[in-house]
Design goal:
This protein is α/β, with parallel strands linked by helices. The chain has 16 helices and 14 strands. The strands form 3 sheets. A 9-stranded mixed beta sheet has the order 1-2-6-5-4-3-7-8-9, sandwiched between helices. Strands 12-14-13 form a 3-stranded antiparallel beta sheet. It has a two-stranded antiparallel ribbon with strand order 10-11. Helix 7 packs parallel to helix 8 and helix 14 packs across helix 16.
């Protein structure tokens, strides 16, 4: 479905804002919240911009004087060639779980099926230099989780990432790769075929501009998106220091579950997982049931090819719900209720409520309509 003129203009304004020196995702969210739309921000006067907390004369001047619109239009031309979609953080298709993390991207570039980004997902991450055991474990967990209806998230890197994506796709499931480069720049190039299949059976996602190179500095930051899109992160194999441990740390900061696969005491590639387990930061897992138990869900594949996946909840009775989940459920009825009204009644903030509402939706107790309206099933 094509964009309306107003929507298209505001996406162009959003991209323009992102190109203003000194304006990052946080500033964009703050400015749009203050003025209403990205276009209104660019139309604001110098003195009006100064009224926004944290916007000094230098930044206000940079916004007012921005004139790099040819570069903005070039991004959209490249996006058209790559069949990439821009998802602003105010778009209903923007992943709900990302709204709950610290410093969510102001927008995402994506290729594939946007609806996949809101399905229950588990991240599988690990070293680029895995052992045969690590590859076998990544493949096993990815296939088992994908066949039970989970989207498998990773970063398309060599090693554990590539094995997890491939296994999920082979199981007939969905998988999503979060890139540390532009959405039209697949890295490593040897994973081009995996990327093509991901577009058909999931999605490619990036917060970086199109044509952006896979610079080393991009990868630690993108890891917050991998963990942020997931209900939990499984570290299969990792050295004592590495990107997988950064993803695990970010998952903990985002109040998500972290799991780790134990390995040989003689293997350096197991040191990272053992450290997470010993420090109480990750649950040791032997099988996919350990992951499902911690997430509070049991799911099953129904069709022979794994494409038609249905889920059943481990909680058979809403009376077993507790805490914030119970509070939110009790406040919902058959009539849809907006998230703001629900949060006021439940005395919880929106970010917290969204995490628990997604859990309730996954368990089959609530449903969401457009505009962040929720109702009881």
């Amino acid at each position: 479905m094509g964009l309306g003129e107003t929507d298209g203009a505001d996406r162009r304004a959003l991209l323009a804002l992102s190109m203003v020196p000194g304006v990052g995702a946080g500033k964009i969210r703050q400015l749009v919240a203050y003025f209403g739309t990205a276009q209104d921000v660019l139309n604001a006067s110098f003195h009006t911009l100064l009224e926004v907390k944290g916007i000094g004369p230098g930044l206000a001047k940079a916004i007012v004087q921005f004139n790099q619109y040819p570069a903005v239009d070039e991004q959209f031309r490249w996006a058209g060639r790559a069949e990439a979609l821009l998802l602003p953080f105010w778009d209903d298709r923007y992943p709900r779980l990302l709204h709950t993390i610290y410093d969510p991207p102001a927008f995402l570039w994506m290729r594939g099926d946007a609806s996949v980004l809101d399905k229950p997902a588990v991240a599988i991450v690990g070293t680029r230099r895995p052992s045969a055991y690590g590859l076998r474990a990544a493949t096993h967990f990815a296939k088992e989780l994908a066949s039970r209806g989970f989207v498998i998230l990773s970063g398309l890197a060599y090693g554990i990432d590539g094995a997890a994506h491939s296994a999920a796709l082979e199981a007939g499931g969905c998988s999503v790769a979060v890139l540390g480069s532009g959405i039209d720049r697949i890295y490593p190039a040897k994973h081009m075929e995996i990327a093509r299949q991901l577009v058909l059976q999931g999605a490619l996602v990036s917060e970086l501009p199109l044509r952006a190179k896979p610079d080393a500095a991009n990868f630690p930051k993108r890891n917050r998106i991998i963990s942020g899109l997931s209900l939990g992160t499984l570290v299969v194999e990792a050295f004592e220091k590495g990107g997988a441990l950064i993803t695990a740390r970010m998952a903990l900061e985002q109040n998500r579950e972290v799991f780790a696969v134990p390995g040989s005491i003689f293997s350096q590639t197991a040191a990272g997982c053992h450290g997470l387990i010993a420090g109480g930061q990750a649950k040791l897992v032997h099988s996919v049931d350990d992951v499902l138990d911690e997430l509070g869900v049991v799911s099953e594949a129904v069709s022979s090819n794994g494409q038609d996946v249905r889920k059943k909840t481990a909680i058979d009775n809403a009376a077993q719900l507790q805490g914030i989940e119970r509070r939110l459920y009790d406040l919902l009825g058959e009539e849809p209720r907006h998230i703001d009204a629900l949060c006021d009644a439940a005395a919880v903030d929106v970010s917290t409520a969204l995490v628990y509402l997604l859990s309730l939706e996954f368990k089959g107790f609530v449903r969401q309509l457009a505009g962040k309206q929720f109702y009881r099933c």
